[in-house]
Amino acid sequence: xxxxxxxxxxxxxxxxxxxxxxxxxxxxxxxxxxxxxxxxxxxxxxxxxxxxxxxxxxxxxxxxxxxxxxxxxxxxxxxxxxxxxxxxxxxxxxxxxxxxxxxxxxxxxxxxxxxxxxxxxxxxxxxxxxxxxxxxxxxxxxxxxxxxxxxxxxxxxxxxxxxxxxxxxxxxxxxxxxxxxxxxxxxxxxxxxxxxxxxxxxxxxxxxxxxxxxxxxxxxxxx
Length: 223
Prior knowledge:
By secondary structure, the chain is α/β, with parallel strands linked by helices. The protein has helices spanning 19-28, 51-58, 78-84, 99-108, 154-165, 183-189, 198-201, 206-221, and strands spanning 6-9, 33-39, 64-70, 88-92, 112-117, 135-139, 171-175, 193-196.
């Protein structure tokens, strides 16, 4: 089943001094989703923001809020992120002892459930939770920092995940090092949602955001 290519700018790369305006600008510039990278300084070596920031941003856009939890433990915080306005909540397979339970909890909160895999994690961990999933996020860099170099071995991993999914209506999202050069590699392998931070927010103006999003989308669609 063919799925539309969606661009999900990561606000991690935006200007935090005007975060609400940045969300409005990137939405107007053509973003399909808003990607929210939540880091705890424990599961990953960085700290970003929590549910209160997401709640404050919710009024600035009606776009899908795609919340990527890079936190451990994750289960105690799922309800807070759901109440803050997240539409999709993605947890890391490596950050929960009971992945099936975590995914059930997200869906019971009325949200779409996603799972993310770090580069070293084999796709086989997904085998018995596929029917719990709305989204699979494949990290194409090691999580924790923006601006890293794309790990090319993850293209084959994306292809394997696509084969595992079969005809299930699951989005495959790529996060890390997405540019007009790397986007066609992963979309050709089966991905349909592209997270981009610095590649979208470079330039610092709504016009540059629009041009950057359009360039990534065009490259991805030509794969």
